[in-house]
Give the backbone structure.
Amino acid sequence: MSRTIKRVFYICLFFFVFILGLVFFLKNDQVMTFNYLTGSIELPLSFLLLSTLCIGVLLGITALLPILVNMKRERSRLEKQIKVTEKEVNNLRIIPVKDTH
């Protein structure tokens, strides 16, 4: 897929999700009471759902962070190993083959 088509697709997808979210926000304007440890507050249902989604995404990213760091280290180690191996192969290609007869 070309870059322009991909960009247009992402722009259309963004607007579709934005409009869908706007409709969701307008349809769910009921006020709900949110009780927490030290008190309570009345907020629209759509805001509560959106904030819960954002908190879940942040917790998910936080949970994946150690795995991503380990994968990045492993990738770096393997890239160094590839460079050493390629250098060794190139050196072996340069060495002339000796006939033992």
Observations:
- Strands lie at 31-36, 39-44.
- The CA atoms of residues 12 and 44 lie 28 Å apart.
- Residues 45-94 form the longest helix (50 residues).
- The two ends are 58 Å apart (CA to CA).
